[in-house]
Design a protein that fits this description.
This protein is an all-alpha fold and 407 residues long. The chain folds into two domains: 135 residues, no CATH class; 253 residues, no CATH class. It has 17 helices and no strands. The longest helix is centred in the N-terminal third of the chain and has 26 residues. The chain is globular.
Length: 407
């Protein structure tokens, strides 16, 4: 298991420092395919991702998982060898990671035998077709505009303080109050006297008020810390009723489709909305998330495809994070938190022509963020595979398409 983790880190770090952007995308694709295949194997092998049981029955799922891992090894090894031939040290790191991962996967490939070849060819054709189609669609894929940072000092301070409190303080009043203050302050910070606009974000977070009141009333003296609430004064029926308004407020703050247009700062506040979904929805209202799982997963898959077609990479990360929230469990929500952070971080450091201008030093950080996001996305898709197989597969195809869609 240690070798597999080292191999994944080698692909993520080495891939981030490759000079060719196509090579970076290829390594990110390989990493996502590999993690997805390993987690799929874990789902069918006892649920333990650290040491899944490898069946010897030659089943279709065994061959498909083996094909995914073999394709990931072949892609990363080929990119590493090509970059190494161009005298890039990062190419040696990627190639070494591919070989180390291959050694870990040898027992699986031996168990699958020659039955690997048909699914390997099928998966390779699907990935190649998605990459080619993404590059040949007419028109230019444009990222969402970089979020406008607040310009008024008082509102800026309120955004920062409210966001930090909502993310870090494990208490109901602090979390919901901080999120509402953060959202309203963001509206005030970008408000222009010349252009009047309806404060949609401030109106959307109003949906959090009844959630706040209901939980505080029901919990009463039992305590409003997240740990106390998780132990449960809320019935499954109450949790089911609370998820829709909580999701409306959180998705609007995070800038996730279909409420992406409500936020005046794009995905800049995604970690705040993500904290509400990961810590409050998954942590305190798990029965409600379970009830609404099919709807949330479908919403996430549609959001991934919408963002991929439109070239909105930050919003794609937010929709992928929503899929992790809907998946439940332990690993997927944690990876969803990482995707929400990446959804806010990447547009904030991204500058047009970042690799061609004086700020080229930021390029490795920018690439590392994307490769890490690909790894988190694979963990999310692996978790979703255990609950919503069809939607997880649809989301995976959309994520690969979106990865190659933006030039």
């Amino acid at each position: 298991m240690i070798r597999l983790i080292i191999a994944a880190l080698a692909l993520a770090i080495g891939g981030a420092w490759l000079r060719d952007r196509r090579a970076v995308r290829a390594v990110a694709t390989a990493l996502a395919i590999g993690v997805f295949g390993w987690l799929s194997l874990a789902v069918g092998g006892g649920g333990d991702w650290r040491a899944p049981t490898i069946p010897n029955d030659g089943s279709l799922f065994l061959r498909l998982d083996g094909a995914l891992l073999l394709l990931a090894a072949l892609i990363s090894a080929a990119v590493g060898a090509w970059s190494l031939a161009r005298r890039e040290l990062a190419g040696a790191i990627v190639f070494g990671g591919a070989m180390l991962g291959a050694v870990q996967c040898l027992p699986l490939w031996q168990a699958a035998g020659w039955g690997l070849l048909p699914p390997l060819l099928a998966v390779a054709l699907v990935v190649a077709a998605a990459a080619l189609a993404a590059g040949r669609i007419p028109g230019r894929a444009a990222d969402a505009p970089i979020p406008r940072l607040p310009t008024r000092s008082g509102a800026t301070a309120a955004v920062v303080v409210g966001g930090v409190v909502a993310i870090l303080v494990p208490e109901l009043h602090a979390m919901l109050g901080g999120a509402i203050v953060c959202a309203v302050a963001a509206e005030l910070a970008v408000r222009s006297r010349a252009v009047r606009r309806i404060p949609w974000l401030a109106l959307a977070v109003g949906a959090l008020v009844p959630v706040w009141w209901f939980i505080a009333t029901v919990a009463g003296p039992s305590g409003l810390s997240l740990a106390a609430l998780a132990d449960g004064p809320l019935s499954p029926a109450a949790q089911t009723l609370l998820i829709p308004p909580l999701a409306v407020g959180a998705l609007a703050i995070a800038g996730v489709w279909p409420l992406h247009r409500l936020s005046p700062v794009g995905t800049l506040l995604a970690p705040v909305g993500g904290a509400l979904l990961v810590r409050l929805a998954d942590g305190v209202l798990p029965d409600g998330v379970l009830h609404w799982r099919p709807a949330l997963a479908a919403l996430a898959a549609l959001g991934i495809w919408w963002s991929a077609v439109r070239g909105r990479r930050a919003e794609l990360l937010g929709s992928a994070a929503l899929l992790g929230v809907a998946s439940g469990g332990t690993a997927a929500p944690l990876a969803a938190g990482g995707l929400f952070i990446a959804s806010a971080l990447v547009p904030s450091i991204e500058v047009r022509g970042i690799e061609r201008r004086a700020n080229a030093a930021l390029a490795p950080l920018h690439r590392l963020a994307w490769v890490a996001a690909a790894a988190c996305g694979a963990v999310v898709l692996g978790g979703a595979l255990g609950t919503e197989v069809t939607l997880a597969t649809l989301a995976a195809c959309g994520a690969v398409f979106g990865m190659w869609r933006v030039r």
